[in-house]
Structures are given as C-alpha cells and as structure tokens.
C-alpha cells in the first residue's frame, strides 16, 4: 500500500504563505509534485509552480482528450511561432508532457478525468498526463511511457501515481464507451472505429472476468459503470509494471466536494491542477 499525504503550501521551500493544501504520494517522494485541490482555482500552473519549486519553469498544454505527449521544447516552439504570427492560441493541443531536463514543472488539469504523474527513479525524468476515457481508450499513459523509454527509461525504474478522479462505482457511461475503453486491456482487442452490439457484449463478458474488473453492471439498460483508473492500472501491468510501481489516490472527485471539482457533479468548466518537477 502506498501513502498519500496532504501538504500545506510552502512545505517545498516556497515563499508563498497560502495555507491551501495539495496531495502527494510516497511513490513520488524524490520529486516535488502535487495533486492540487479546487482551493487553488483559478490560479494557473505558472502561479502554482513556486509552491512546488520556486526555481522550476512551468509547462502546460491545451487538453483535447487525445493521446499526444509533447516536450517542453515543442511547447516553447509552438508559442514562439504563435507570437510571430500574432495569434491568440498560447498552448498547443496535447494531453501529456514529458521532461527533457531538470527543473521542468509539467502540469495537467482534471475535473473527473485521471491525472497521472510519472517519474523515472534512475534518470529523474518525469511526465504528466491527462487520461479521460477517450485518452485512456487511446492508451495515452502507455504512449507517454514508451516515449520515456525512447529517451532511456527502463520499465522497472518507472513509477506512476494516478491522482483523484471519478470512481467506477459512480461513473455511469454507455456500454459502448465501457467496451471501447476496457478492451484495451484484452489481448485480443478489436482495432476498429465502431463496435457492433455483439462486439460490445463480447468485450464486456471478457472484461468482467478479470480480477477486480474495471467495468461494473448498471441497472439501466445500455449503461455500465467504468473505472478508468483501473483500466489505466491494467494497461500499465500489460507493459510489465508491478503493483508496487503504481499508486491510485484514495479520493473520488465526484464524492469529495470538499476537495475537488467534479464536472459530473457540478457541470462547471472548472479544474484542479496536478504537477511534477523533473530532477
């Protein structure tokens, strides 16, 4: 079992005096990191980063529910081009970031989707990923890890913390969505744009036979309950990662209104940020 701890702002040596808290995981203890609460809204990453590391440079993207993972260099290049063209689109479309050197603070936003902070205990490299059901269906976390591997990371050295997100027991989706997402953990997954009713039924029967299945039945016809973080965990296991390398936060955004925004609960376009600083 992994330990999750609340920290007050300023614990990382920042000059900030706010008493707002953020959540940390012992799995990522060597890195300055945090899963921040709605109390920090609407402060952007550039304003929150000093609470993790006053010397770090903040990076973020415009999240689009895909599986693109960019580097800070790509973000800088995009912003330089936009400045030259005098266009008002400050951040490139993507749903993940991967560090290139020390002192880079990588951020993702969420309000029910899964924020994943990833780190390499040998190289110090990190990634931050936004994994909603669409991104999870496109296996964005494995995409980020494969990109880290291309830069020298080894699977046994990677650690992943899946932050506060909506729990499967309260996340109702269509059976088609549940099948699209959960089939990614099957060895005989279908690779096609659309699923027939027969495909959906076949996938869900297989998925529900998994230990601690990521899909639960729902009383409403054509609906199911989907545990996106469990799907992400199973995707990581398929890469060869052990349970000890992955931690899941014991908080559901939908059921913890005192700490987190939930789009499903409030239908408001508000978010909380999650970030990690490379070493």
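^ Assign residues to that structure.
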């Amino acid at each position: 079992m992994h330990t999750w701890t609340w920290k007050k702002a300023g614990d990382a040596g920042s000059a900030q005096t706010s008493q707002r808290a953020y959540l940390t995981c012992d799995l990522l203890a060597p890195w300055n990191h945090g899963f921040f609460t709605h109390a920090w809204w609407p402060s952007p990453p550039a304003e929150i980063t000093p609470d993790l590391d006053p010397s770090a440079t903040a990076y973020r993207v415009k999240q689009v529910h895909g599986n693109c993972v960019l580097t800070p260099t790509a973000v800088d290049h995009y912003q330089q081009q936009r400045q030259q063209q005098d266009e008002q689109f400050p951040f490139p479309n993507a749903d993940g970031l991967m560090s290139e050197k020390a002192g880079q603070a990588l951020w993702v936003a969420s309000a029910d989707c899964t924020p994943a902070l990833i780190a390499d205990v040998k190289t110090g490299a990190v990634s931050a990923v936004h994994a909603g059901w669409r991104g999870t269906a496109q296996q964005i976390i494995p995409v980020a890890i494969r990109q880290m591997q291309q830069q020298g990371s080894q699977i046994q050295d990677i650690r992943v913390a899946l932050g506060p997100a909506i729990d499967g027991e309260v996340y109702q989706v269509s059976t088609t969505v549940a099948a699209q997402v959960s089939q990614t953990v099957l060895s005989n997954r279908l690779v096609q744009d659309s699923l027939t009713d027969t495909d959906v039924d076949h996938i869900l029967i297989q998925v529900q036979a998994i230990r601690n299945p990521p899909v639960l039945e729902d009383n409403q016809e054509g609906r199911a309950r989907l545990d996106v973080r469990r799907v992400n965990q199973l995707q990581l296991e398929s890469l060869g990662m052990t349970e000890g390398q992955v931690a899941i936060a014991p908080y559901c955004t939908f059921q913890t209104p005192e700490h987190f925004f939930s789009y499903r609960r409030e239908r408001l376009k508000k978010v909380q940020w999650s970030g990690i600083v490379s070493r």
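The CA atoms of residues 116 and 258 lie 21 Å apart.
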